[in-house]
Amino acid sequence: MDRKLLIVFLIFTLSLVSLFAEGLDATLERLSGNSAQAYVGPIVSSFGSDLNGGWFHKSPKDKFIGLDFEIGVVAMGTFFGDEDDYFSTTGTFRFNRTQASQMTEDVDPSVRNYVIDAIMQQDFEVIMQGPTVVGPSDEHVEVIFPGQDVNYVGPGGVSGSAFVGEENITTEITGLLDELPAMPLAAPQVSIGTFFGTMLTARFIPAYDVPDLGEISYLGLGLQHNIKAWLPLPIPVDISLAAYIQTLKLGEYVTAKGFTSGLTVSKTFGPRMFSITPYAGYMLESSNMEFSYEFQADPDLAPINIDFKADGKNKSRLTLGSSFRLGIVNLNADYNIGDYNSVTVGLAFAF
How far apart are CA 201 and CA 329, in angstroms? Predict the structure, then answer.
């Protein structure tokens, strides 16, 4: 593919992902425990769906040795539903000084500061609700503290206990993507075949340094094998087995992984250089995102290391699409049906 066009897509993808990651990084620094997992849930599934999409648009030739080479770009977009805009969960939460001060307005003034210090140094079971990462940017995550006795250490090291009543705390955290309809992703893609009906496909974005975030990189590899290469039957369509694995790293902060495998079917109509190829596939898939960051509840306290892994909801997909070839230019588009629906579009030079 034209080098300038590849660079444009590369810059677009890296810029989008890096800006998103930097914003998410700053937001998660104020979230801990279950609240962080619930907040990022929709983008875990959407990123996983994007990573697992757009890998095929035909079956490889069922030849022992043949030349089939493509280089281009593929763009994916996974749709969000209305249910992805909000979350509600129970779990632990660490309050900062401002929040603890709000919670203790009715506590005896003589011990209030000690109670505030005690609150800041422990996790509490709370209810958390509000916009997710893809929710509206003008609404805030709320933390509902049910009320309980808080043990503190007072003057001279004397221990005490004070009751802190029920309180609704409105945090500064809002939806980061402001009801974005779909999560986009784009990447260069290269395919080469065939050897005994097998085609190798790869995606690669070289390591790219983003200030305050670290290196971004993306690598994906997969194989597609036409079973007609060894099945001596007059099958009117090309049937292939396929499997693909990929990893997207956003510094030391986020690692997204995807794996998909299944069955693809295609049929080409017309001569090779001027053809239409409808295709379909049924794929099983998995994806996850691993998060690692420091939760800073308050500047006066040491940060807490937070590490967790969240799985994407998509477990399978049905792909329906068509590929169009005019000379050496190939354009394809498909729709993917799963727990999270998506579309993919590919543009490549084919030889």
Answer: 18
User: Do 194 and 256 lie in a common domain?
Assistant: yes
CA distance 138 to 102: 22
Which of 139, 174, 209 is at the close of a domain? 174
The Cα 67–Cα 306 span in angstroms is: 49
Q: What is the pLDDT of residues 100-154, one digit of tens each?
A: 999 999 999 999 999 999 999 888 999 999 999 889 989 999 999 999 999 999 8
* CB within 8 Å of 182: residues ≥ 6 apart: 46, 77, 78, 79, 80, 342
Query: Looking at 174, 190, 220, which one is the last position of a domain?
Result: 174
Q: Tell me what the mean pLDDT of segment 294-300 comes to.
A: 70
Residues 266-270: contacts with CB under 8 Å, at least 24 apart: 266/57, 266/58, 266/59, 266/237, 266/238, 266/240, 266/323, 267/236, 267/237, 267/238, 268/58, 268/238
Structural domain of 64: 3-80+181-350
pTM of the model: 0.84
- Kindly report whether the peptide bond that precedes residue 194 is cis, defined as omega within 30 degrees of 0: yes
Provide DSSP, 127-179: EEEEE-TTS-TTSEEEEEE--EEEEEE-GGG-EEEEEE--EEEEEEEE-SSSS
Task: Name the domain count of the chain.
Answer: 2
39-98 pLDDT tens trace: 888 989 998 999 999 999 999 988 888 889 999 999 999 999 989 999 999 988 888 899
Both 73 and 217 in one domain: the answer is yes
